[in-house]
Amino acid sequence: MAEELSRLTGLLYEIGLLKRYKRTGWLVAGVRDPESVADHSFRTAIIASVITALEGGNPERAAFMSLFHDTQETRITDIHHLARRYLTAASNEEVTADQVRGVPRPVAEMVSGAVGEYERKASLEAVCARDADKLECLIQALEYREQGHQNMQPWIDSSLAALKTPSAKRLADEALGTGSLEWVTRLLNEDRDT
Q: Fewest CB atoms within 10 Å of the CB: 15, 39, 69, 183?
């Protein structure tokens, strides 16, 4: 048990690397200090719960899968899509199996199950979690574009094209038609009206 706890603690430290690893696509687009993988995963989990609730599924399950969907990047990093043409990487399930090797079995099964379900698109929740990943990328691209970064359209277009659920598509349309700070303006105007 001591060895399992040591490995589990190591996994927790390893997952912490995601707070420092930057999303490489944004570096390619010219964003000097882009979001981290952990930043992306957090908002993806929130979006997954929202989409899944709208689609009639289990929001907690979708959010849970989203928290683990990029944890493999502690070992293989966030490889930009262009670079993937030239590399052969292990599958996310294989990386996850290595990450959880030697940790307590219930934890290993929990993490491997979430990653496997996500990768196989094996449930409504997995499809919603994958849509959340793309919708988060689209929203981030819109925010970066508002900050003056001009090269965001390819990320917006590819994210839109990948969406599957009606709820994610409706949210994307709404995000495209509004600014990232319109919610603040609306609240401030409501305060003035009262």
A: 183
SS (H, E, C) 89-154: CCCHHHHHHHHHCCCCHHHHHHHHHHHHHHHHCCCHHHHHHHHHHHHHHHHHHHHHHHCCCCCCHH
pLDDT reading at 166 higher than 80: yes
Rounded Cα distance, 108 and 98, in Å:
10
Question: What is the CA angle 131-84-121, rounded to 5?
Answer: 30
State how far the Cα of 34 lies from the Cα of 29, in Å rounded to an integer. Answer: 10
Answer yes or no: are the C-beta atoms of 134 and 102 closer than 8 Å: no
Contact indicator for 93, 117 with CB cutoff of 8 Å: no
Beta bridge partners of 22: 36
Rounded to whole angstroms, the Cα distance separating 82 from 3 reads 39
Q: Is residue 81's pLDDT more than 70?
A: yes
Tell me the whole-structure pTM to 2 decimals: 0.93
Kindly tell me if the per-residue pLDDT of 80 is higher than 80: no
Give the three-state DSSP class for 22.
strand
Please say whether the beta carbons of 168 and 135 come within 8 A: yes
